[in-house]
Amino acid sequence: MLNRLKRILLELAKIHRFVMRFYRELFRAPLEWKEIIRQCYEIGWKSLPLISLTGFVTGWVFTNQSRPSLSEFGATSWLPMLISIAIVRALAPLVTALIAAGKVGSQIGAELSSMKVTEQIDAMEVSGTNPFKFLVVSRVLATTITIPILSFYTALVGLMGAFLSVYINEDTGFIIYFEQIFEAISFLDIFSLVLKAVVFGFTIGVVGCYQGFHSPNGTEGVGKAANWSVVMSMFLIFIEELLIVQILNGIRNW
Amino acid sequence: MKNSKPQIDYQQPVIELRGIVKSFGDLHVLRGIDLDLYKGENLVVLGRSGTGKSVLIKIISGLLTADEGSVEVLERNVPQLKEKELQQLRMQIGFSFQNSALYDSMTIKENLEFPLVRNKRNLSRKEIDGAVDEVLEAVGLSHTIEQMPSQLSGGQKKRIGIARTLILKPEIMLYDEPTAGLDPITCIEINSLINEVQEKYKTSSIIITHDLACAKSVGDRIVMLLDGKFEYQGSFEEIFGTNDERVKPFYDYNFIT
Q1: Please, which residues have CB within 8 angstroms of residue A3's CB and are 6 or more apart in sequence?
Q2: Tens digits of residue pLDDT in A188-239
């Protein structure tokens, strides 16, 4: 029991050092801009088809699931408001982050881990390049930048999915639908989306890179790094969601 | 490449190791290593697998830290160097990895220009392309410039790995098992390349191997790592003139006596 606790504390200390190193390297010029842009393309652009499908289905299904409850009170006209708040405040960043944790987090973990196994990280280091800056800083920055952008995109696609359902069932027009949505959404809701997406993006990047950099050697290590990147990212995303919602509700009620 | 073998300067060591000790947990790998590599010399380190040969060159390049002892490379004390100073020193040390360690998401051209672009940021595109062409020509693989590492054979990967280190024109080369896993003909080609690099770039090299044909072909001096220490050193004939039962099987196996 004591040994287990010691191992957990040592692991936490290692993670703390890793994150601190990220901040140190982040503010030390020059940044690897070309690699950051490449990673943004890999993480952002290549995730678009999956995000589009998931976002659209989420909006559509959520609307269909919410309709019966509201129709009991004859309040289906509130659907656009309810949906917009749910999508912007919670669903868009959460769905985007969970999809990215599975797709991007595992990719980062496996890629860095296999680079470690095949000594590519050592090769960078001995050729006078800082591998942490090139590999970790660029990837964490890329996830932190692209997940918020993807979250906005998910929100838009989700609202379109919801619109389709509302249009078919309630015969609500496009302009009226979006007028109701913009009436319902406050600045704090947009802030909530951005804050969550930035925190989730940073988490996915850090966890993926940490697992890749510290994976055990061998091909088994590559699999473990990919697996743990997803598991840890998702676990942390839910914990962060819980904390951020509490903080934002506190601000809202203040 | 038509160049003459550089004169070995025995007054000028480029690497000086004293009392190097390294353990991994209970496994004592190096137990007091003293070593000098002289300017212009090709030094071969022979030894069984798992005896710490690769650990030794990783300590020299600063990838690993010794538990005890001093490491001086080009008159600089490696463990005491700051990050920036170590980075500067590493530009003068070429490290050829056992598995080539080519960046598999990049083309051969991108692999080769990677160290150059990051360390010499004032170079023009024309100068970078010129340097890439030069090292590719030096290893005889100009036609592979746009290929991916996965498209190359084991021997070609080794050559590109060496070319990538040469692009920074290092003074010291560290080769980790340069002929491991290659067929005999390719081994001969790699051995010739190591000699050509020594002649053209005037490098001083440490070659880690357990391939005696390689050791005989490229080594100006050979040291034998046994039980964590250098037990024998000298020419090929001097090393294998011994009756030591720990040394003889190497010769018997490699030359099928």
Answers
A1: none
A2: 999 999 999 999 999 999 999 999 999 887 788 899 999 999 999 999 999 9
Query: Do residue A129 and residue B61 have CB atoms under 8 angstroms apart?
Result: no
Predicted complex ipTM exceeds 0.90:
no
Q: Is B125 on the interface with A (CB under 8 A)?
A: no
What Å distances lie between residue A234 and A155, A174, A244, B118, B141, CA to CA? 20, 35, 15, 35, 46
Q: A35 and chain B: CB distance < 8 Å anywhere?
A: no
Q: Are residues B76 and B161 in the same domain?
A: no
Question: Position A68: which residue type?
Answer: P
Angstrom distances, CA of residue A119 to CA of A81, A129, A139: 54, 14, 19
The domain in which residue B227 lies consists of 1-92+172-183+202-257
Nearest CA in chain B to A122: B63
Residues B10 and B77 in one domain: yes
Residue B104 forms part of a structural domain: yes
DSSP assignment of A11-80: HHHHHHHHHHHHHHHHTSSPP-HHHHHHHHHHHTGGGHHHHHHHHHHHHHHHHHHHHHHHHHTT-GGGHH
Q: How many CB atoms lie within 10 A of CB B144?
A: 21
DSSP for A97-165 reads HHHHIIIIIHHHHHHHHHHHHTTHHHHHHHTT--HIIIIIIHHHHHHHHHHHHHHHHHHHHHHHHHHHH
Tell me the shortest Cα–Cα distance from A101 to chain B, in angstroms: 22
The CATH number given to whatever domain includes residue B248 is 3.40.50.300
* Cα dihedral A157, A158, A161, A165 sign: negative
CA distances from A65 to A60, A86, A162 (A): 9, 13, 11
For chain A, what are the domain ranges?
A: 2-253
Cβ neighbours of B102 in A, within 8 Å: 120, 123
Q: Indicate whether B82 belongs to any domain.
A: yes
Q: Whole-prediction pTM value?
A: 0.87
Q: How many domains does chain B have?
A: 2
In the numeric block, which tokens belong to residue A105? 């987090």
Region class of B167: left (phi > 0), else alpha (psi between -120 and 50), else beta? alpha
Residue B73: phi, psi to the nearest 5? -125, 125
